[in-house]
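Please complete every field before forwarding. Incomplete forms are returned to the sender.

SECTION A: IDENTIFIERS
Entry label: holo-428
Bound molecule: flavin-adenine dinucleotide
Molecule representation: SMILES string

SECTION B: INPUTS
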Amino acid sequence: MWDFSTDPEFQAKLDWIATFVREECEPLDLLFPGHGDPYDVHNAQSRAIIAPLQEQVKAQGLWACHLGPELGGPGYGQMKLALMNEILGRSYWAPTVFGTAAPDTGNAEILAMFGTEEQKARYLQPLMDGTIVSTFSMTEPQAGADPKEFVCRAYRDGDEWVIDGQKWFSSNARYASFLIVMAVTDPDAPPHSRMSMLIVPTETAGVKFIRNVGLMEEPLGEGIHGYMHYDKVRVPLDAMLGGPGEGFKVAQARLGGGRVHHAMRTVGKCQRMIDMMLERAVSRRAQGRLLADHQFVQGDIADSIIELEQFRLLVMKTAWVIDTQPHGAARTLIAMCKVQMAEVYHKIARRAVHLHGSLGVTNEMPLAYYLMGAESLALADGPTEVHKVQVAKAFLKNAKPHEGLFPSEHIPTRLAAAKQKYAGVLDQ
Ligand SMILES: Cc1cc2nc3c(=O)[nH]c(=O)nc-3n(C[C@H](O)[C@H](O)[C@H](O)COP(=O)(O)OP(=O)(O)OC[C@H]3O[C@@H](n4cnc5c(N)ncnc54)[C@H](O)[C@@H]3O)c2cc1C
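SECTION C: PREDICTED COMPLEX
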């Protein structure tokens, strides 16, 4: 059965979420608009506002919905999460209010999957409670897309690991209580088992900020993406998350979920931009007509709606496969979502900016921010090209070469075969 319906009971929850996000979360986007604001757990004002909101979310049973019941989430699965996340994606603050903000979601997942009981009690529980935030520290200044180029080392010294090296774009490190650092622990091992994950409390001696890298208009050195120097940072042996050499495996476990959740939220951002385009088109006039009456404008609106619908179906199918098929079955679909998310987001943002004219590029509308967000999403969690290669390889590995000069779909060859097959009838 192909079924695109939402069960009425869950639809009631989605309706509650939509009203709550519009009335309670979107005002926070305006009051606390900094990239890092949702992660700054020490801002007394914003925390005073969100604490009761988070309580309301918990009372509705909608807190930390990416996690199963054994970890305090309702365990709705990815289909329901997709429907939720496309509403939450409309507001920058909403994921924090609902306990589903990246990168903490991914970090919570790997702590749940690979953490010891002690690690879970110390790091996972406060993350789940929303009282702390965390950082995933993997990319290096000389290498991002290819972890095989990483050089940040961790070597054993007695009963400690010593981490020595630099990391780039460690998002939210300035607010984080701990960092999950990927380091080379066995340089002579094959590339995929050279690295391990280590949990490092941020206050550990030797954790140094070279600077906080900012995006776009942010003042130099005041962004939220930490350029880190782990200057002979010492952590105990039990700080390892997963086994020695399992860094790659742990990273992969978190990145798949993170990518598809970004894709779900992107659906919401795109829908919001389309809403803005529609409103503008029926509000503004040019050449004696509404913008809505100009065919170029209609074309941009139609293309945006069609592309979003296609992308949304891809995201929903991916969520369905994750929910219903064995672990790993959705790998290629997730790569497709990763590629298409940035493409569709970029195209719709560009059209929405353009339709709003000069106002569209100002800081008085959220559109220019969305346009840059699309470019960031084309890089974060791996650039588009890497995921395209993954999709192509997944299909090419099953492709069979065809014997002979012409392809199997060559019409004259197939026609000759068809004539031969029905020669008995055709000859009469
Ligand atoms: C907003 C944002 C948040 C981020 N947060 C984090 C974080 O919290 N933690 C973290 O560790 N990292 C984070 N990153 C870093 C992110 O993972 C890297 O930017 C990404 O992996 C790409 O690495 P790079 O920037 O070094 O680009 P490079 O590796 O230098 O790649 C640059 C370009 O080279 C080309 N290219 C690279 N590889 C290939 C290939 N195989 N085939 C074809 N072309 C290729 C592509 O055009 C690519 O865009 C974040 C990035 C952004 C933008």
